[in-house]
Design brief:
It is a multi-pass membrane protein. Belongs to the SecY/SEC61-alpha family. InterPro entries: SecY/SEC61-alpha, SecY_dom_sf. It is found in: Plastid, Chloroplast thylakoid membrane. It holds the Pfam family SecY. By secondary structure, the chain is mostly helical. The protein has a domain of 45 residues. The protein is built from seven helices and three strands, in the order ααββααααβα. The protein has a three-stranded antiparallel sheet. The longest helix is centred in the first third of the chain and has 23 residues. It is flat.
Length: 173
């Protein structure tokens, strides 16, 4: 999420490019907008499928799994909630400063407004914080691991846990 100051500048640049007859610049702006939307949709819908191995799913005839099972994890499980929380947090000092006469709050409100110097870095940090926080509220890793344990599932064949790295090397003679 970008501050509204950057959004208004891009609208200004696209309008200025159109008025100046700079159609290459206008096409570049439109193309970057379309690519941004496609990238956002791709990440929002992306899913990491971790393959699961069940002890009871092995068959004696084929020697392999009957059907593959996956543990689906959304890449962006928190959605747009961190952006909403971040934007609300950035507006809070300005709202409180209107009702009080505290000089520190007024300085913070000026620095955190969309044209302020701290808008973008604070927004990025707050989005990252709320993303991790909201994901930790939604995903209970202890509960997921307990369910997998009860069902007899293991995830050791994922790239995250390479079995060759876990076992000590044996020396051959």
């Amino acid at each position: 999420m970008e501050c509204s100051c950057l959004r208004s500048r891009s609208i200004f640049w696209s309008k200025q490019a159109y008025l100046d007859g700079n159609y290459v610049g206008l096409a570049t702006i439109i193309l970057s907008f379309i690519l941004s939307v496609l990238g956002i949709v791709y990440v929002q819908e992306a899913e990491r499928k971790i393959p699961l191995n069940y002890v009871s799913r092995y068959t004696s005839r084929s020697g392999g799994l009957q059907s593959p099972a996956y543990l689906p994890f959304k890449v962006n499980s928190s959605g747009v909630m961190p952006i909403i929380f971040s934007t609300s947090s950035l507006v809070l000092p300005g709202t409180i400063a209107r009702f009080t006469d505290l000089a520190a709050l007024k300085k913070a409100a000026v620095a955190l407004n969309p044209a302020g110097s701290l808008c973008l870095p604070t927004n990025v940090l707050l989005i990252a914080f709320f993303n991790y926080y909201y994901t930790s509220l939604q995903l209970d890793t202890d509960d997921v691991s307990e369910r997998l344990k009860r069902q007899g599932a293991s995830t050791l064949n994922t790239p995250l846990f390479d079995q060759a790295k876990l076992q000590p090397h044996s020396s051959r003679r």
